[in-house]
UniProtKB/TrEMBL annotation, chain A:
Organism: Halomonas cupida
The protein, known as: Cyclic pyranopterin monophosphate synthase
E.C. numbers: 4.6.1.17
Molecular function via GO: cyclic pyranopterin monophosphate synthase activity
Annotated function: Catalyzes the conversion of (8S)-3',8-cyclo-7,8-dihydroguanosine 5'-triphosphate to cyclic pyranopterin monophosphate (cPMP).
Automatic annotation (TrEMBL), chain B:
InterPro entries in UniProt: MoaE_sf, Mopterin_biosynth_MoaE
Reactions accelerated catalytically: 2 [molybdopterin-synthase sulfur-carrier protein]-C-terminal-Gly-aminoethanethioate + cyclic pyranopterin phosphate + H2O = molybdopterin + 2 [molybdopterin-synthase sulfur-carrier protein]-C-terminal Gly-Gly + 2 H(+)
Alphabetic keyword roster: Molybdenum cofactor biosynthesis, Transferase
Entry keyword Transferase: yes
Complex and partners: Heterotetramer of 2 MoaD subunits and 2 MoaE subunits. Also stable as homodimer. The enzyme changes between these two forms during catalysis.
Sequence similarity: Belongs to the MoaE family.
EC assignment: 2.8.1.12
Protein name (Swiss-Prot/TrEMBL): Molybdopterin synthase catalytic subunit
Pfam families assigned to the protein according to its UniProt record, in alphabetical order: MoaE
């Protein structure tokens, strides 16, 4: 596989599409904006201070698709025949899912237009809601499908779990959760050996947000034997742990509240969890 | 006495047990928290309480110990329920006994304020418009901070 945007000297260059066949091109991309339940409720009820959030984000996404060539240096200017931006409120995951489809009859694909539409629609959602929620996170922006062109059709599949590279154990201990609503825990097939490890638990909303319940991490993977080092190791093992930095996440070591600098030794139990809401 | 349980509790029976055979208690203050049918959204049909077994009991014991250092208490009962609860169900019970009412009133409020901001419980609410995890409330933190000010 070669990159057609690079010339023989490895420099960036725009691909000459003059000789490509004119075919019907279509691409769909999607992404999500994660927000607090309260923000999502305000959005659903149309009570956010800046007004109709989804209508504004839809227009922004469509406009952005048409201007992709101004933003992405090596993109051609295209006369899109259709741009559609749609939203889906996902209460369970606490997010607005954004999808965009772009279409034209032309010589080049429209995936960059679809991705740009999703990105800008997500940014607009953020802008419209940021007055009430600064912890929102934009994520999972990716191409879903692409039709037409020499490289053929593309359909995004679920990536194999092994490629994520984390050691996650779902079996074993009884679940911590005490009612319905668990799940999302994955067994990634790697069995921890006898080497020194720390056991990491993600609790409550954080477990659902990450889709990870328990992980065993070999101590040798930690750049420093403390919580900060553990976080670095977790993020290197699985990209979902980047969300440990999203919002307020608390931490306990051996069931005592801990901080970034708390020292870790083998067999320690580390729990990450959201702010408590009992009583 | 600390209990974390799925089963309902009877506040009257718990209070009787706390004061049984005692003649040094002059005041008993009891607080019961109930499941409301509205919170961040209307029409809450149920909630699920998750906790962190082990740490929950330890943190509740620590909170009670702190109350005992601040007020001369003659007895404390703290019960917190877990699992699925529906509107009207009791969630939490705090009973504080002391020789005098002021200490019992203040300690009871202190225990609830600290429980809400320090004990590892999490609520997930199930409403007619979907499920969501309850977010922390700044008012709860402000309530807990009152006790830091008065302690300094």
């Amino acid at each position: 596989m070669t990159l057609t945007h690079l010339n023989a000297r490895g420099e960036a260059s725009m691909v000459d599409v003059g000789d490509k066949a004119t075919t019907r091109r279509e691409a769909t991309a999607s992404g999500a904006v994660y927000m607090a339940p309260g923000t999502l409720a305000l959005l659903t009820d149309g009570k956010l201070p800046k007004g109709d959030v989804l209508a504004t984000a839809r227009i922004a996404g469509i406009q952005a698709a048409k201007r992709t060539h101004e933003l992405i240096p090596l993109c051609h200017q295209l006369a899109l025949s259709s741009v559609a931006v749609d939203f889906d409120i996902d209460d369970d995951q606490g997010c607005v899912r954004v999808s965009a489809s772009c279409r034209l009859a032309g010589r080049t694909g429209v995936e960059m237009e679809a991705l740009t539409a999703v990105s800008v629609a997500c940014l607009t959602l953020y802008d419209m809601c940021k007055a009430v929620d600064k912890d929102m996170e934009i994520g999972e922006i990716h191409l879903d499908t692409k039709v037409g062109g020499r490289s053929g059709s593309y359909q995004r599949g679920d990536r194999p779990a092994e490629s994520r590279g984390a050691v996650v154990s779902a079996a074993g201990e009884a679940p911590i959760v005490t009612g319905p609503g668990m799940g999302g825990e994955m067994d990634l097939g790697l069995v921890p050996g006898a080497e020194p490890c720390v056991r990491v638990k993600c609790l409550a909303e954080l477990r659902e947000r990450l889709g990870i319940g328990e992980v065993v991490v070999p101590l040798e993977r930690l750049p420093s034997a403390d919580i900060a080092g553990l976080k670095t190791a977790l993020k290197a093992m699985d990209e979902r742990f980047a969300r440990l930095d999203q919002g307020r996440v608390l931490c306990a070591v051996n069931q005592v509240m801990a901080g970034e600098g708390t020292h870790l030794t083998s067999e320690d139990e580390v729990a990450f969890f959201p702010p408590v809401t009992g009583g | 006495m600390i209990r974390v349980q799925q089963e309902p509790f009877d506040a009257g029976l718990e209070q009787q047990a706390l004061v049984a055979g005692r003649t040094d208690i002059g005041a008993v203050v009891s607080f019961t928290g109930l499941v409301r049918d509205f919170n961040e959204r209307p029409e809450v049909e149920a909630l699920t309480l998750e906790h962190y077994p082990g740490m929950t009991e330890a943190s509740l014991a620590e909170i009670i110990e702190e109350a005992r250092q601040r007020w001369p208490l003659t007895g404390v009962t703290l019960i917190h329920r877990i699992g699925r609860l529906t509107p009207g169900d009791p969630i939490v019970l705090v009973i504080v006994a002391s020789a005098h009412r002021r200490d019992a009133f203040e300690a009871c409020e202190f225990l609830m304020d600290y429980l809400k901001t320090r004990a590892p419980f999490w609520k997930k609410e199930h409403t007619t418009s979907g499920d969501y995890w309850v977010a922390e409330r700044e008012q709860d933190h402000a309530d807990a901070r009152r006790w830091e000010v008065s302690a300094s």
